[in-house]
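Researcher: I'm preparing a figure for a lab meeting and need a structural model of a single chain. I don't have an experimental structure, so a prediction will have to do for now. The sequence is pasted below. Please return the structure as C-alpha cells so I can convert it later.
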Amino acid sequence: MHLLCPSSGMSATTTLAAMGRLTDAVAVVVGAGQTPGETIGNGRAIATTFAREGALVYCVDRVGERAEDTVRSIRAEGGVAESFVADITDADQCDALAAAALDRWGRIDILVNNVGIGGRGDGPAHSADDDAFERILDVNIRAMWRTCRAVLPTMREQQHGSIVNVSSAASVAGGFQVAYEVSKAAVNRLTTSIAQSNASRGIRCNAIALGLVDTPMAVGGIAAARGVSLDVVREERNARIPLKGGMGSAWDGANAALFLASDDARFITGVVLPVDGGTSIRIG
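Model: Understood. Here is the structure written out cell by cell.
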C-alpha cells in the first residue's frame, strides 16, 4: 500500500503502476453495485477509482448482478476485482464476506462502507413510521458496525488498516427524514469511536459526509417518488449548492474516499470530511 520510488531502470508503464496510491492494497467495498440509471453511483465510482489506483477490489453487494457489473467494468480497464454477494444486515454474511476476502488475498487493508437507504416511511419526527425507522437504522448503522466488526480483528492483527464510512450532510442538517438523519449522525460517531479504539493498532477510520450528488439512487429515486422528470430534480438540487457548478458526482466522493484510504492520509483518523459543495458551511 505504500508508494514505491521508481528507479532509473523502470519503464514508463511500470513506473505508473508503482505510483498507484493503493498499489496491491486489498480493498473491500461494500455497496459496490448501483441502482440502474444514467449516471454512476457512489459504490461503483469508489471501486473503480480504487482499482485504477492499483487496489485489489472485493466488490460486495446484496444484488449479485450489480456487483458483477462493477467487476466487469473494472476488469475491462485492466483492473483486479472479485465480487461477493452479501446482505450486511445479517451478521453471519458480514463475517463471511471478510473471510472470503482473506481467503482470496490473505489480508484486508481497506474497508469502505457505502450501503445506505432512506425513504420508505421516513419523515419528520411527528409522522415517521416505526418500521421505517427500524429498517433504516438497521441498514445504515447496525449493518455498518457489523462489517467493521468483521474486518477489525484482521486489521488489528496486521497492525494496519483504513476504514472509510459513507455518511451524509443530513447528519447535521435536515428535519424531514428523522430516521435517515439520526442514522447518519450515528455513522459519524461510529467512525470516531472506531478511530479512537483502534489507533494504537495502526488502524485509521474516517468518513465522508456527502451532500447532494447526482447518482441514480438519489436523483432517480426522488424523481420516481414524486412523478417528475430527472431534469426537474437536477435543477432543484443544483440550485441548492453554494459552490458554482451545482451538484457533485459520485467521482467527487470517490476521490475523497481514495485520499482517506491511502497513505496520503496516514496521519488522519476520526475525521468526518464534508464533500458537499459548501452546503455544510451554511450550518456551521
